[in-house]
Design brief:
CATH architecture of the largest domain: 2-Layer Sandwich
CATH superfamily of the largest domain: Bira Bifunctional Protein, Domain 2
Largest sheet: 7 strands, mixed
Number of strands: 37
Strand content: 25-35%
Structural class: mainly beta
Distance between the termini: 73 Å
Helix content: 10-25%
CATH class of the largest domain: Alpha Beta
Shape: globular
Radius of gyration: 30 Å
Length: 662
């Protein structure tokens, strides 16, 4: 294949994916004082990555002239040249990691395009650091595409990060092709092996790096006319600032802590590795600290020793988060002892320190498989982030207040202690609402939270759950009106913890919970006890409105061997596209046993344009009318009258009818 044929194939492929072909730009680095972007053919797009609208649209493709400067000493080998062309596809607030990676994989491996041997391809992703997280999303996308885990390298910023001193930046995922013999392709990928040649780089410009080094999400939906005032209102457990290396030292005066790494959980024997760790802020995921033949386990332990110096005098809070066990000594006093297997959990220790004084420090940690986390942070005296947040709110027209929980408060490994927002977040919301009348609260949590103290004082609430790495983009689309939300609550939100069915038995004795709810859980409990919830099961707002009409049943009477077809119309009566989720509930009018007021038996999602009406059809059989009989130990269906209820939530019934089951 000639260079010209490759250019044309590339442009044709991405044109078929909705990209506009744009011309190659001048090499004069108008938007690139570092020439980093000029080196990679990215300089023509810098203003548009920062939020400007491109006349060609949000999907672009080009063949851009480049000049190599950053690694000039490598120019002249088999893979580096002074002048060259870079093939590039661009998304300006359109698609992101999933589509980008999938398109590159299709172009490289599909027989319709380049048809490269998949067995000769490996990739790398950003491993994460204290500033930005491991690129779990890119890693998972490659696994879903069939890339073996041994062919996915997790590499640091120097390998898998794009950006300069300030401006757009973010993680990347690089694609490598084995240029050696096809019969000698290694099972694992090693980026030090020169036979692995980089052929593609998917760069994800997620952030705008400010002159002070902080990272902000790029403002694709809101543009440059919006000024963002940002402040941290509270810090959750495990989110304190890492203790900087300049305040840590070894006995020899070196910066950082001395780390002794053992290949067992008991710190036994001689350490396998000893090294200087600048900061104690590690999240190894499911991996081990070392990636070589001498270290093959994530069953290990570490001892860090040294000194910590107080930069100022006053009240310090040390925050130590770990998964699994950890112990912390300060001046030979054991101040934190959490030496057990557990999911990521935080422990704090408060103490008065004197400016300039050094204190002995020792931390011991062990990992018993799975996730591996050990992070030491602190809060300095006089720091009150709530004051800064209130000041930012006073200076803003609209406040987006992000609140919620984290893995330190709820996880697959343990349950919430209560439904209260941790760390004085209720107080933060109330104070922000008192100085700004346009507050939207965004909740990141995996289960309901109490909102009684502030719900009536804010303009709206977005419950975002734990949306993952792409949540910020999805939320931006929703808040800007680019996308109309259509989610419905899969649980009931209570007004009070006392209203919940588990209140009387949850962790009452020795942390044990007795499940005594029976069949009356969730919305069934609230309806059975006539308790008004904060938000009912199945509830969710939209930027449009819907009307229900024309409920029809396939029969007024049916035998137990027949099926019932339920049809009705849903109309979008608003001005924007939207999705609605109608829900089918059934009520047993007169049963021989105690049953819920009604039970969910079906639902469907329907997407509608303004003014559009669609018919919805749901079908149920006798199982929808049955209940479990404790005497016969089986499900039975009793003849009688049943109500068919169509609701937009469990409490808002839009249509209803009756049927007799014979």
């Amino acid at each position: 294949m000639t260079a010209q044929e490759l250019r044309q194939k590339y442009l044709k492929f991405f044109e078929s994916k909705g990209h506009t072909i744009i011309p190659s730009a001048s090499l004069v680095p108008e938007n690139d004082p570092s020439v980093l972007f000029t080196t990679a053919g990215m300089h023509p797009l810098v203003p548009y990555l920062m939020g400007e609208k491109h006349p060609g649209g949000s999907r672009l493709v080009n063949v851009q002239k480049c000049i190599r400067t950053g690694d000039i000493d490598e120019v002249g080998d088999m893979t580096h040249h002074t002048f060259f062309e870079m093939l590039g596809n661009w998304s300006l607030g359109d698609y992101f990691k999933k589509e980008s990676i999938e398109m590159s994989w299709e172009f490289l491996t599909s027989p319709s395009w380049l048809g490269l041997d998949k067995n000769r391809i490996a990739v790398s992703v950003f491993e994460g650091d204290a500033d930005s997280p491991f690129d779990q999303e890119a890693y998972d996308i490659w696994k879903d595409l069939g890339m073996p885990e041994k062919r996915i390298a997790k590499l640091p910023k120097k390998n898998n990060w794009w950006g300069m001193e300030k401006g757009p930046c973010g993680p990347d995922t690089e694609i490598f092709f084995w240029a050696g013999s096809p019969e000698e392709v290694p099972e694992s990928f090693n980026d030090d092996n020169a036979a692995w040649v980089e052929i593609w780089n998917n760069v994800f410009m997620q952030y705008d790096k400010k002159s002070n080094g902080t990272l902000e999400i790029l403002k694709q939906n809101f543009g440059d006319k919006v000024k963002i005032n940002y402040a941290v209102g509270v810090r959750l457990d495990g989110e304190s600032i890492p203790v900087p290396s300049k305040y840590l030292s070894t006995e020899n005066g070196e910066e950082g802590l001395r780390g002794e790494y053992f290949d067992n959980m008991e710190l036994k024997g001689r350490p396998v590795y000893t090294r200087m760790d600048k900061e104690l802020y590690f999240d190894w995921g499911g991996d081990s600290p070392f990636k070589n033949e001498n270290w093959k386990t994530d069953i290990f332990s570490v001892r860090w020793t040294g000194k910590v110096k107080a930069p100022v005098s006053g009240h310090f809070i040390f925050d130590l988060i770990s998964d699994d066990g950890v112990r912390f000594w300060l001046d030979d006093k054991l101040v934190i002892d959490h030496w057990t297997d557990h999911a990521p959990e935080s422990r704090e220790y408060e103490i008065q320190l004197v400016a300039g004084k050094e204190y002995k420090i020792k931390i011991e940690y062990y990992e018993n498989g799975g996730g591996a986390v050990c992070k030491l942070g602190w809060t300095l005296p006089g720091e009150d982030p709530m004051i800064a947040a209130i000041k930012a709110a006073k200076q803003s027209e609209v406040v987006l207040l992000f609140a919620g929980t984290s893995a330190a408060y709820e996880s697959e490994g343990f349950d919430r202690q209560d439904l209260v927002l941790p760390k004085n977040q209720d107080e933060l919301i109330e104070k922000i609402a008192s100085v700004n009348k346009n507050v939207i609260v965004v909740i990141n949590a995996g289960s309901p939270v109490l909102m009684d103290k502030w719900l009536g004082k804010v303009k709206g609430v977005v419950f975002a759950w734990f949306g993952g790495q792409e949540m910020s983009y999805a939320l931006s689309d929703v808040l800007s009106g680019k996308f109309n939300p259509s989610g419905k609550l899969p649980v009931t939100f209570p007004k009070r913890w006392e209203d919940c069915s588990a209140f009387s038995t949850y962790k009452k004795e020795s942390g044990i919970t007795e499940y005594s709810d029976g069949i009356f859980i969730g919305y069934r409990h609230f309806e059975h006890n006539n308790i008004e919830p904060l938000f009912p099961f199945g509830f969710g707002l939209s930027y449009t409105k819907f009307a229900y009409a024309n409920l029809k049943l396939s029969a007024k009477e049916m035998s137990q061997n027949e099926k019932l077809t339920v049809t009705f119309d849903v109309k979008n009566t608003g001005k924007v596209d939207g999705g609605e989720i109608p829900q089918l509930y059934i009520r047993d009018v007169k049963a021989s046993v105690e049953r819920p007021v009604k039970e969910l038996k079906g639902f469907s999602k329907v997407m509608l344009k303004p003014g559009e009406t669609k018919a919805v059809t749901l079908t149920v059989d006798k199982a929808a009318f049955s209940f479990f009989d404790e005497n016969s130990k089986s499900f039975i269906t009793e003849p009688g009258e049943f109500e068919i209820l169509i609701g937009s939530s469990s409490q808002k019934i839009e249509l209803k009818d009756k049927i007799v089951l014979k």
